[in-house]
Specification:
The chain has about 100 residues and is mostly beta strands. Helix content is about 0%, strand content about 60%. A hairpin with a 5-residue loop joins strand 4 and strand 5.
Length: about 100
């Protein structure tokens, strides 16, 4: 896994719809994206089984669908990709701002 990027890194009410997480897979893999709080507790999870190799984009973890937003603060977005050949991880910081 390479080229992990979160755009923008700080997400608020005005940017949540356009925010996206992008990464590049070297081959087909099962992908899990987790948002971890400062204590390492998983706050959100998105599974993408069977993701094709190459570039992939996940629109921000669409926290509106969950009927509640993440609290303002600093988080880590962790991406784990695995297949029969092994696994890889990448992480990037995320800031949630108040609306």
């Amino acid at each position: 896994m390479a080229k992990l990027a979160l755009n923008p890194r700080a997400v608020g009410l005005s940017s949540e719809r356009s925010a996206s997480l992008t990464f590049n897979l070297s081959q087909k893999a099962n992908v899990t994206v987790c948002v971890l709080n400062g204590n390492g507790i998983v706050m959100r999870t998105v599974a993408r089984p069977g993701s094709r190799g190459g570039p992939d984009t996940i629109k921000y973890l669409v926290y509106k669908r969950l009927s509640h937003r993440l609290a303002a603060g600093h988080y880590t977005v962790l991406v784990v990709a695995s297949n029969a050949s092994g696994s890889g991880t990448a992480a990037t910081p995320l800031t949630i701002t108040l609306p």
